[in-house]
Amino acid sequence: MAKEQGKLSDQIRRAVRDCGMTRYAIFKATGIDQATLSRFMSGQRGLPMKTLDVLADFLRLRAVMDGPRRKTEKKGR
């Protein structure tokens, strides 16, 4: 089973850090405001879906679903 990767936003933050580009370069390439990106990267704010789509396209990310989580049955006493 795959190791838990954390929240989607955390994975995107990691991808931004790992891409090796400055926030300014990302802004120039995508049009995403540097202040908006900075607040997202620091965890102060989320990003609208449209902006996430632009960022994901730029970083060449794609979402992969493992499927729904199954409820775990609680054992009675």
Structural class label:
mainly alpha
List how many beta strands DSSP finds: 0
Which stretches are low in confidence, meaning pLDDT under 50 for 5 or more residues running? none
Output the radius of gyration.
16 Å
Q: Give the SSE string.
A: HHHH
Number of DSSP helices?
4
Through-space gap between termini: 30 Å
Which percent range describes the beta-strand content? under 5%
* Shape summary: elongated
Mean residue pLDDT: 85
Helix content: 40-55%
The largest β sheet comes out as:
none
Offer a few descriptive terms:
77 residues, mainly alpha, 4 helices, 49% helix, elongated
What can you see in these coordinates?
It is elongated and about 55 Å long. The two termini are 30 Å apart. It has a domain at 8-59. The longest helix has 11 residues, at 8-18. The chain is built from four helices and no strands. Helices cover 49% and strands 0% of the residues. It is an all-alpha fold.
